[in-house]
Amino acid sequence: MSSISSSEDYKISLELGGIIAPLAQKASLNEQDFNLKHSAFLDLSSKIQQLNSSPESKARLQEQFEKLLNAIEFFEKPDIIPFPWLDFKFNEIIIKENPDNCDTSRSQGSQLSIEKDQIMTQEYQKKIKTLENEIDELKLAIRKLRDENHENEKLKTRLKRIAELEKENEKLQKMLEDQGERLKESVITEKEYEAMAKEIDKEVTRIKNELEESEVQRVEIRRQYDLLNKTYQEMKSDYKNEIQALNEKIIEISNRSQDIENKLKASQFKESENHSLIELANKRISELQEELNNKETHLQLQNKCIEEYKKQLEDLEPATRYQIHLENCLKELEQKLAESEEARFEQMKLYNELQRQISSQETERINPHRIKQLEDLFMKSGEKLDELSTKIYQTLDTALTARTESEKKFRKLRKKKCPHREKLFTRLYAEKKNPCEICINVHGHEWAKSPKRKNNIIS
Predict the structure, then answer these.
(1) Which residues form a coiled coil (predicted)?
(2) Among candidates 121, 141, 119, which has minimal Cα distance to 129?
(3) Are residues 120 and 262 in the same domain?
(4) E strand map for 187-292
(5) Residue at 180 is within a domain
(6) Is 341 in the same domain as 442?
(7) Whether the Cβ atoms of residue 74 and residue 128 lie closer than 8 Å to each other
(8) I need a surface site. Which of 79, 175, 409, 444 has the fewest CB within 10 A?
């Protein structure tokens, strides 16, 4: 029974290996493969529970096959990209667009590292294909072993039948010996003895012939059994050797996988260094681009300053017009003041004449109506003078405030510095570089050339 249970366990272990082998080809990190692994785990647990062995051996088998299922991830991986976030095409485009601003040696180093990684991945894929072919060959060998085991079981049943026949032959021989002893003991005549002897001889010859035939059959069966046993032992030894070779290959594969992982880690470290170099190159490129952008913005600002300064120069003409208008207003006010002074002078003349008349006609009778008229005229002229004086002062204040504001605006405009100021002024005022035309038109040459008015002179 132990041999039968071990053979059944062996069959089930082979079936479990047949379940695990296709999973080893389809192993990856996707959800479908995870579902396959889960279903395979359930099939394994159900088949292990069907075994006739002890629960300890069942638990041991389940642990071993769980380890194999967990190790399937290391047999075959998808095409791994070591750093998917690195866009090497972007660096190649930058190198093609501005090869003078980037370090070609660093880009060549990155390309070499990429080529090395590609070579490693190709070798890894070749190794995986060889392992898959070996797995297929092992599957075929396992199928052959199953068929051979089935034939061996048939031979075992035949050998059991032969052993049973041998036991029956031994029993028959014992029966014959007992019968012969009984015949010897019995007293019989010679004829009967001769007849019995003939019959016995016939039976003996018949039995001998049967024994010889059985011996020949037994020899042949024995020979076949020996041959089968030899083949079985040879196959068993070959199977053990193959299992040992498989274990050694599994160990080698695990060691290779560890070496590959270490190499990948080292390559990742190198790639991290290359990545740092690439980042430095990208930083340098970005700095150069920023400098170019700053230069472009600086040129744009300079153009804007030139345009604004042109507009300011265009706006200066209405400011001068406003100043001229204010000066005309001041002249008009001065004329009005002169007129008011003349009117006041005339009023004083009238007042002096009245005093003179009063002094000359102290004794004479003076017309009171005429005096009232003169007093009314004097009062009206005084009121007009007050109104004129208030209006004059108001207009003077407004003119002064407007003048101060216009001067402030003009000074602000003049104080705004521009790097292209001299070029612009030389272009606009090529004939007159030193004095300002606006100041000359408003105030004259002496005011423009005075030392107190340096802001109005172009440096």
Answers:
(1) 114-298, 323-391
(2) 121
(3) yes
(4) none
(5) yes
(6) no
(7) no
(8) 79
363 three-class SS: coil
Residue-wise pLDDT tens digits, 329-347: 666 666 666 666 666 666 5
Into how many domains does the chain fold? 4
Instruction: Looking at the structure, tell me whether residues 2 and 117 fall in a common domain.
Output: no
Q: For 93-131, what is each residue's pLDDT tens digit?
A: 444 444 444 444 445 556 777 787 788 888 888 888 888
424 found inside a domain: no
pLDDT in tens, 305-332: 556 655 555 554 454 555 555 566 666 6
Q: What is the dihedral of CA 141, 142, 147, 152, to 10 degrees?
A: 100
Distance set, CA 185 to CA 80, 90, 117, 197, 392 (Å): 96, 116, 100, 14, 186
My answer on whether 24 and 40 are in the same domain is yes
b/e for 274-309, b at 16 or more Cβ within 10 A?
Answer: bbebbeebeeebeeeeeeeeeeeeeeeeeeebbeeb
Question: Is-contact 83 271, C-beta < 8 A?
Answer: yes
Q: Is the dihedral of CA 314, 317, 323, 329 positive or negative?
A: negative
Chain centroid to CA 128: how far?
A: 28
Residue for token digits 């010859």?
Answer: 205
d(CA 290, CA 285) in angstroms, rounded, equals 8
Could you tell me which residue, 66 or 145, shows the higher pLDDT? 145
Q: How far is CA 36 from CA 18, 28, 158, 339, 408, in A?
A: 14, 10, 43, 116, 86
pTM flag (> 0.85)? no
Burial group, residue 414, by CB count within 10 angstroms (0-12, 13-18, 19+)? middle
Domain assignment of residue 454, given as a range = 429-459
* Residue 346 in domain: yes
Are 242 and 312 part of one and the same domain? no
- In eight-state DSSP terms, residue 429 is T
d(CA 121, CA 115): 10
